[in-house]
Every structure is written in C-alpha cells, then in structure tokens.
Amino acid sequence: MKWIIVGLGNPGGEYGTTRHNTGRIVLEHFRTAHDLSEWEEKKPWKALSSGGKAGKAEVLLLEPETMMNNSGKSLVTLVKSKKQAEQLVVIYDDLDLPLGKWKFSFDRGSGGHKGIESIARTIKTKAFVRVRVGVSPVSLFGKMKKPHGEDAVVKHILGKFSDSEMKGLDKVGKEVVEGLNVLIKDGLDAAMGQFN
C-alpha cells in the first residue's frame, strides 16, 4: 500500500521560509534524499505532488495548495478509510517543541494546529502519523520560550527563519528523513522507539 506524506504550509513565495511552512521545508529534504519526481500541480487534489519509490515502498508526497486552515481538502479523495489513514504521515510546525527537536506521534489531538484539525475533520479520524517539528524559540540557556497570546503566536509562526535557524532546520530535516525511512520499512513502533 502506498504511503502518503504531506508537508503542511501556506502556498506562495512570501511564505516560503516562514516557520508555518516547516512541513513543506522538511518534506523537500525527503523528496531530494530519495530523488523523487519534481513537484507537479494536481488541481483535483488542490496540491503539488511528487512520488516514486522510497526503498521498496511507493510514496506519494503532497503539499496542499490551500491555506493552512483548509489543508484537509487535499486529502478528500485520497484517504477514504481508517486503514488508508494509517499510511498517512503529516509533517508540521509545532510550538510545543523547541526549534531543533522533533517527534513522531499518532492518534492524538491537534494541539491547536489548524492544519491538523482540518485534516482530522476531513478524513474523520485522528489515527494518522504526525511528524511534529519544533519551532518555539530557545533562550541562551537552552530553555524553550513558547510565544503566548494569539498575536504573539501568529507573529512567530508567520515570521521567517533566520539563517542560523535554517541551518538547524536542515539538520532536523536530515534526521526526519532517517526517521521516515525507518517508519516506511519497519513500522511506527520501530520509528518511535528509535527517534522519540
């Protein structure tokens, strides 16, 4: 069965290097690591897609071309059962983790992330794999400083990564590629055991 791997973000060049586009940025690491096809617009899915083989598994990569809050629209015709949802992986920015950290999770709440809420609502289940990539700032002493209040959160997630933050995200991207390789080959328990 085919794995569907989705990188969340907002379409359009102005959002390219914002923290809210972390899912897309990290997914691009996976695409290039496996030399998958170039991005192609798929109007019926309201998404850009790429695909091919990752190891022995077939994968379909998606970047929804809707705004974040409507990310689920890209999966309406692709994920129609709970069984299919178990082969769905969604990569996204998470304010509950510091920049430089990431985690697998499965079958849990959205943590207030509108893209995850949209997907869960559309496919009618929370039982899909998430790759949560931290975007909260870290102090000089290594403590996470999560922004508080709606204005501060919006300003932070729509802000652009600095050059040094992008270097950190590149490192995370390489780790996520390794994690996804284990997930696809050996399953979720193995991937969570090794990387969480």
Automatic annotation (TrEMBL):
Signal peptide: none annotated. One of its GO terms (molecular function) is tRNA binding. SUPFAM superfamilies: Peptidyl-tRNA hydrolase-like (SSF53178). It catalyses: an N-acyl-L-alpha-aminoacyl-tRNA + H2O = an N-acyl-L-amino acid + a tRNA + H(+). It is an enzyme of class 3 (hydrolase). Keywords: Hydrolase, RNA-binding, tRNA-binding. Coiled coil: none annotated. Its EC number is 3.1.1.29. Belongs to the PTH family. PANTHER family: PEPTIDYL-TRNA HYDROLASE. This is Peptidyl-tRNA hydrolase. It comes from Candidatus Lloydbacteria bacterium RIFCSPHIGHO2_02_FULL_54_17.
